[in-house]
Structure formats: C-alpha cells, structure tokens
Amino acid sequence: MRRRLKAALAAFAIAALLGATPFAADADPVTLRIAWIVPAADAPLSLFGHPGIAQHAGKSYATEFVHFNGTPPMITALASGDVDVAVLAFSSIALAVENAKLEDLRILADMVQDGVGSYFSNQFVVLTDGPIKKVEDLKGRVVSSNAAGGAIDIVMRVMLRRHGLEDKRDYSFLEGAFPNMKAMLIDRKTDLITLVPPFAMDPALRAVAHPLFVQQEVMGRTQVIALTTRAGTIEKNRPALVDFLEDELRARHWYLDPANRDKALKTVAEFTKTPTSLWSNWLFTASDIYRAPDGKPDLEAMQKNIAVAHEAGFVPADLDPKKYADLSLIEEAAARLK
C-alpha cells in the first residue's frame, strides 16, 4: 500500500512539474458558446460540422452555436456571459468598448472582409421598376437593415448622411432579419434593403431588384466582422481557444480548396436545407466574400472603418482596435498548420 501511495504521489509530482495533471486526459472539453448570424458568411465555417476537419472538437473543446439577427445584441450577450465568443462588426466593437464599457474585449481573428479586389461587396438594393434611381430619391422613404448599429446598417447611414439624409427627419427605418428582406422589398414595405450572401444571390430577387450602391463605394476595404471574446475567457480557456482557432483555420483552408468544392457545396446545402444551385456559382470563389487565409484581421482597415463611422457621428469614439486585439492565439494556431 505504501509503495502504491508513493508511486501515485510521485506521478502527481512529475505531472505538476510538466504543467499538467494526471487527470487531464479525463477532463471534460471546454464548451465554447459562439454567436453567429448568417451561415457561409459571418459564421465560423466549423458551424457546418463537416466530418474530419475539426481535430480537437470533442476533445479539448465543444461548441454551442447561438444565433442572432445582428451583432449589436451580441454585445449584451458577451457582457452578461451568455456567449463566450462573438462575431462582432467594426461598429459593434466600438460600441462594445465605448458604450458597454467592455474594456476587456479582445479581437481574436478575421471572419469576413469587404472591398477586397473583385470579391463580393455588401449590397444596398432597390426595386428595378421602383421610384428609387439615386440615393437622394430615398428622402421620405423607408430603409431597412438587419440590426441598427451593425456594420451594414452603419454603412447605409453613412451613405445617406453623405447625401444629406437624416434618420427620422428624411427617412424612416424598419429593422428586419436578412431572410425577410426580399419579401419586405417586393411587398413595398421598405424601399431599400441591405444584403449579404447568400441572400444577395437569390435569383428571384435579382430578377426584380438591383444594387443602388455597394459597401466598397462607402468604406473602401472593410474588416466587416471579427471573432472576439473577453480577456477573462482567454485567461481561463486559452488552450481550448487556440485549438478551436486551429480547427477553424483548417476548415477555412478545406472549404476554400477547389479540390473539395463539390463536398463543400453539398455540406452547406445540406446544413441550410437549400439547393446546391443557390451556392454553386459563387460560394468559396473570388465572387464570394473575402476571408483571410491566415485568419488575421485587417486592423488598419478596421481603424479606418471606425474613424469613418465616428466622423459621421454613428460611434462615440475614434477607437484604435489594435489596443483591443490579441492575435497571439490565431498566430499560434496558424503556426501549427505550417
């Protein structure tokens, strides 16, 4: 008995010296509650759960994906601890720090960017046979976005302000979820809708509507959405977060690889319960939104985006996102894949 006790104590001491415990292998995976809006857009690609990509899932971490209609409500969820990771827009990052006082907010990785080369740019769409031919024609009309204060909402408001139009004075605002935008426009409940993929690619909508302008015209290059968390979550669960980011990068590389295109399209179509034809002409090509292959966000672009929103009066401060970024996790994750 004494020999067994001494052996157990020795094993524990060795494990402690190595920075582990003898029970680590039996530890439950860390559950990461991840906020998202649109599949194959702002959402992590691991949402689709294609078998064999996520090598650490179920081992060091598990995921619970929580759906939102826009990024601003995610600020409250992060503040209350209802989610651990959120896909925040450049505008909602500024609002989270300045209005919600989340000084411990940390930018982890890129999700999607706009205005990069010939890649897709978010669209602001009107009916082709309708009365809106130029931005000024929206005076006295109704405009819509998915969430007030989100990235595409702020871009819309900046463009309208540049043309002398102010909310409530010159136009009315009607919020609506992305899947409802087409019906809102066709039923003439609104005169302008804001669209991201895949909704902008809907053939039935494209037959009756067209972009009045696109985001690139307003903002140039935009770090639209970034993956974020709080400093306490990093401190508590850093190894699990790095493992998740490694798997997310691995998924990004897999989905963007032309060799996997047929499987990738099938996976997305099955997850969304939509026909493959909705995705086949653009998804994961240069006609899609841009995702940085190394997973690193463009913080310089984000700073410029926040500055534009601030100058237009839509965010309270000209925030420097570099002060709220911790890219060491995505860098560590990327290094493992080399």
What would a concise description of this structure say?
The protein is α/β, with parallel strands linked by helices. It is built from 11 helices and 10 strands.
> How many extended strands?
10
Structural domain count: 2
Strand content: 15-25%
Strand order of the largest sheet: 3-10-4
CATH topology of the largest domain: D-Maltodextrin-Binding Protein, domain 2
CATH class of the largest domain: Alpha Beta
How would a textbook summarize the main sheet? 3 strands, antiparallel
Q: Report how far the terminal alpha carbons are from each other.
A: 48 Å
Question: What string gives the helices and strands in order?
Answer: HEEHEHEEEHEHEHEHEHHHH
| Overall pLDDT score | 92
- CATH architecture group name of the largest domain: 3-Layer(aba) Sandwich
| Helical run tally | 11
C-alpha Rg (nearest Å): 22 Å
Helix content: 25-40%
Overall geometry: globular
Unreliable stretches covering 5 or more consecutive residues: 1-25
Query: How would you name the CATH homologous superfamily of the largest domain?
Result: Periplasmic binding protein-like II
Structural class based on helices, strands and sheet pairing: alpha/beta
